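Narrative of activities, Objective 1.

The group set out to show that a structural description can be obtained from nothing but a protein's sequence at a throughput compatible with the screening campaign. Below is one input-output pair from the validation batch, recorded exactly as produced.
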Amino acid sequence: MNYPIWELTNIGGGTMIALISIIHAYVAHLAVGGGIFIWLTDLKGYRENSKDVHNYVYKHTNFFLLLTMVFGGITGVGIWFIIALVHPAGTSSLIHNFVFGWAIEWVFFLGEITALLIYYYQFHKLERKPRLILAFFYALFAWLSLFIINGILSFMLTPGKWIDTMSFWHGFLNPTFLPSLFFRSFYAAMIAGLFGYVTAVFIKDTSFRNKMIDYCSKWLWIPLPGLGLSGLWYYFAVPESIRQVSFGLNPQSGPFIIVFALSTILIYVLAQIYSFKSYNWVQKTLAFVLVIIGLTWYGGFEYLREISRKPWVIGNYMYSTSIKASDTDKLNKEGLLTHAKWTTVKEINDSNRMQAGKELFNIQCLPCHTVDGIRNPLSPKTESFSRLGIMSALTGQGKIQTYMPQFVGTKQEMAALSDYIYSGINGNPLQDTSKPMNINKTSTDVPSFDRQKDEYMLLVWNDLGMHCISDNDPWFVILPPANTLEAQLIKRGELPQLVTEGVELRYKVEPGFKDPASQVKFWDYAEKNFGVTPERNIGLHGNGLAGVFKYNEERSGYIVETIPVVPYKADGSFNPYPTFTVQAVDIETDKVLIETKVVAPTSTEMGCRNCHGGDWRTENGAGIADETSINILKAHDRLNGTTLFKDAENGNPKLCQSCHADPALGAKGKPEHMNLSAAMHGWHANYMPAEGAEACALCHPAAPNGFTRCSRGFHAEFGLDCVNCHGTLSDHAAGLLQAQADKPSQKRVIASIVPNQVKSVADVNPRMPWLQEPDCLTCHIDFEQPDMDALAFNHWNDDFSELYRIRTDNAGVRCEACHGSTHAVYPAVNPYQPERDVLQPMQYSGNPYPIGSNMDCAVCHTSQMQDPLHHENMLRMFRNSDLVSIK
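Output recorded for this entry:
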């Protein structure tokens, strides 16, 4: 950021460096190995007293001198020129830290030039001893040049103690210095053999030609064990985190690993073919093919080495963006543009926002990406993202996918860069084109109840307060249509009793919701996703939109599971709060004892599109569209090496829980993968650009101005939100991830998460999703009014029976029966009809408060009670009636 930017938007600076440096380094390694080759081959000629060998050495040296000294020298200058243009900050650091190293290398290089020129031009005049001494000194100087340059190159990958000491020797003699030196030395010898073929195949004498070809082959085979062993040494000398980036995380590595492996095999297969005598034209062809394959082999190795360095140009010291790690905190606080010397924008405003974004793009993106060019183009990677999606990508950059540097700068600068990529590069309008939220108000009558005549009370509730549905079954499934209702039937009296036999609880959905199969494709793909084939409009447990509850002794009541109700009516309109009429019927007489209504909340307003692009599936503002689904699958495939998109495209979608365990569906998943909640929240916590309840509402149907507004209970009316119970997204994710410490990917996902409500991740208590939740009594100690600073986060129930949705009071009545469903505790205000969530309190008590509140024991007991039988502190007036407005 302290130097002008060379805007190579189509080819990329890295590609320019690679084109020059790989060729130069290939020839430079030949200069090292070839020097040893010339010395030992000349020695071979003397020992065999072979004039033919000496003539071969002389001609080979002529070719060698032109290639290494002339072409190699020019490309060497080219490297300094290109790296100074593309990465001046990194080049400057290498020069300043290793100035004496470079000076020594230039002395050795001068020694190479002098020795080789005298050797070649005085070849026929020199006696044996001085000629061999000159050859030896050329080989020695060439290898010493490698010795010096290897120290600097390996330093860039593993600077070791230099980060702390800034010592020349700590940087030079770094952790990979020796293995890299041995590996390069053995490889240099191999290259000498490859280029030996080039000159050997032009020998006219067939017998001698074949002899020299066999000799050159030995230069491939003899170094092979050393190459393999030093390669393993090199591999394990590199820190595990770097190996993980190079061979696991970075998607760019795959092709070069393949190139490296295939070219290695081809070199030795073709070299073996040379052992069979063949036509000279075949030998010549193979010689040049092998040289090209050798170049490919070396290119694969160098690319892997470069990729392994990511996100650094100098490991743990300077990012590939030329920003020093030590400067990031300052730049994040004060701004990158403020300190960048070659930018025209210092402060961002509406008029220069796009220019600021471009300046930030040049500094932070161009070092590794092109716009739409031949290498690592950014436009195809981001074109499917929404504006928020690009912001999310920048937020999470470098946290999990550690081969990328983290974004450096202020939130304002991040937003400017996001807008430039979204609009300036991908051509999208920055104006908000979303449709206004439109809620179609609805109504339902409150069932009748006569305290003087009715002998029974029927309490029915939804277990979770909201069941979400991913209605994109042709692509993947997170949650199917599966609403669960529970009920308790109470026979009123001075001592009321729970009715457990002799009755049948029947339910049916309100008109308009009876044919969900006409609205979603769950039934078309149920066999693919769930391995079952339920009848049309029948759920996974055999229940439909009308039917009968089953008595469940463990729950002290009646239950009907996985009702396949969806939030779409027959006309396609969206209503996430359909109601069910439930009747308690005497089995013997078929007489209706009591009838009530209950909301079965269900929504498809899952906010995947907010980041992954696409629109809502329906015009009413809900559902996951095909475009969004495809973008998600492609992202999953790119990041995890899966084939989910291709599988779905071929008619084989996947249930997410087929790999990721999930207690909500009773899915075991695969043991090596994190459970679904930990994976989803953990991953997205690293990328979420929003905080607090706003972050939750971007994914869940909880936005206060959304189509569902599922957080409608009294806690919301009182001003509490998701964070008060679950913590921020980072807090929430930390708890889920802590319980997945045995999973291979957990460490990588949790590494960058910083919780908000505790000091560190280690302070977050691990929890299992759906089975461990905040305990109500954490805040409501002894059922009293909570303190103002009460916090439910990080206080999880120990036993499943302690969950609010499972717990019973001292008399066996379920908490939810009287207080309402999770996220809709009484008095709840429903956005589609204010009293829609409090139909039963209104029916039995005439007010929206918890049943039996305001000392109204007579609603069940038929007479006022003096003992708080159900739980402590219940015989009082409702504390916050002034906050509730049900009209």
